[in-house]
Amino acid sequence: MKLSKKKEKKQSEQEKVEERREEVLATGRKFKYPLQWTKHRIVVNTILIAFVILAMIVVGIWLALYRLGMTDDPLYRITKVVPVSVASVESAGVPFSDYLMLYRSSISSIERQSGSQFDQSSAEALRAKYKRVALTEAEKYSFAAALAKDLNINISNEQIKSEFDRHLKIGGIDRSEEGFLKIINDNFSLDKGEYEHMLYLSLLKSEVSVAIDENANRIAGEVERQLAENENDYKQVAEQLGESVIYQETGGLVDSKNIDGGRATEAMKLEPGQSSGKFISMNGDGYYFVKLIKKNDAEVNFVSIKVPFTEFDKRFETLQDENKIQEYIELRDAEKR
């Protein structure tokens, strides 16, 4: 009987230990689980706050770009990273970054001079004008890109480099790349990458214009034929072809470094009475034919015939008339055309 009582007593003590253990653990859980719940709420709240801040930033950028029409440098840098559209041409997006790049490069010199040369109203009118021009040009470049895709036209890095190198020597001056880029930055607020992108857009539009303008190609062929038959009599050929070509005379010796679409440069390569044959103007808006009249070491006298490209602009104007160009910003006090 005594052994039995000791065993029962021993078991009772174990039970008490277990009960005490459970009490301690239960007390610990009261601190553990509320802490876990607090951590969970902190994580959730942090994520929610981050989303709210992000949403506020997105809304702020949207308002700045699409409602307030701001063109500040930080916004421009954002549009270079985030592919947002300022308009659409036949459902193809027009990059906001292209519009801002074109506008900022055009207005930069005006902005620097506005304090001394322009009053507030004149400066605002110029800004409105250049915004309209920049947006239309950006739309044309996007239209050209869409046509280039259909025509399988591509611009290579070698073409861009060649065009860049040619621009280094515009006006007959052999500039260094560093000096040229400083001029570009000072006058147009463009770095090398931005300038090369503008060259890319220009080259693409030019090649598309050549490819689609069957009428200009036909007229250029007619100019070549008639010049051959009329002993390079430019004036007579221009009179026969009428308004489909543009005839010009220098009227005397002019600087061979003239920035005139490349005509003076081509004329300088010729001998008196010699014709250049067809070449595309430097800005890609048509074909030129040049005949040298006279030259010396630094000056040239020449006549020229231009066959302008018109098909691209006709197609673009058709898109405008048919409301196939949608603009996402409102440009105040500026006509669309």
In short:
With 337 residues, the chain is of the alpha+beta class.
Explain what the structure shows.
Residues 1-10 have low confidence and may be disordered. Strands 3, 4, 5, 6 and 7 form a 5-stranded antiparallel sheet that branches. Strands 2-1-8 form a 3-stranded antiparallel sheet. It is an alpha+beta fold. It folds into 2 domains: 73-212, Triger factor/SurA peptide-binding fold; 214-309, no CATH class. It has 11 helices and 8 strands. It has helices at 2-67, 73-81, 96-117, 120-151, 157-168, 177-188, 192-212, 214-229, 234-241, 263-268, 311-321; strands at 85-89, 92-95, 246-249, 254-255, 279-280, 286-295, 299-308, 325-327. Helices cover 64% and strands 12% of the residues. The radius of gyration is 36 Å and the shape is elongated. The longest helix is centred in the N-terminal third of the chain and has 66 residues, at 2-67. α8 (214-229) packs across α9 (234-241). A hairpin with a 3-residue loop joins β6 and β7.
